[in-house]
Amino acid sequence: MMNKTKLLLLISAILISGYSIVQYFIMDARQAGFVQMKLLFTSTLNSLWYIMLFIHIIFSIVALVIGPFTLLDRFREKNIKRHRILGRIYIIGIVFGGISGLYLAFYATGGWIAQFGFGFLSLFWLLTAYQAIVKVKINNILEHQRWMIRNYSLTFAAVTLRIWLLLFTLLFGFENFNIGYGIISWLCWVPNLIFAEMIIQRKLKGYPNNSL
Description:
The N and C termini lie close together (10 Å). 82% of the residues lie in helices and 0% in strands. It contains ten helices and no strands. The chain has one domain (3-206).
């Protein structure tokens, strides 16, 4: 990816991460907009749900912020040891964030459409990370990089989710939130994955020797 794109990813990741930290850890998480909106459609949220939410937020933030650094070519080439350390931390973030995401998907606002949307997001998040690990283990660095691009496009759903939420709220208000959230559960990651494939294909055309 171009340096400007990576810089934009990093800035967006930091902003959303900072917002989440303030909202869920500095302020009262039960007063967060996401939780309050969810309480409109369900009477109570059990303690396990809150625990899984905190796990999901913490480890997703780790992956969201670290991800752009793992994609930087210059950083990787000049700091291979640090790249590997950050990569391991990133994968840990994906594992805990993905597993907790699968749990939270079962309780997603928006009915079965949202449940499937967020469920597949978490599942593909874990599967693409697994593929990235498999490829680097057999020293197929090119495929490893491509799977990492796919994986981070899913990690970045944390950002695009909030963008779509803002747009849907401005356009349709809160009256149709339950329906809109089901659509957003797919919009927040499917276009990201398509964009990731476009980036990968462009790299393939730009490097006929299959070098990224």
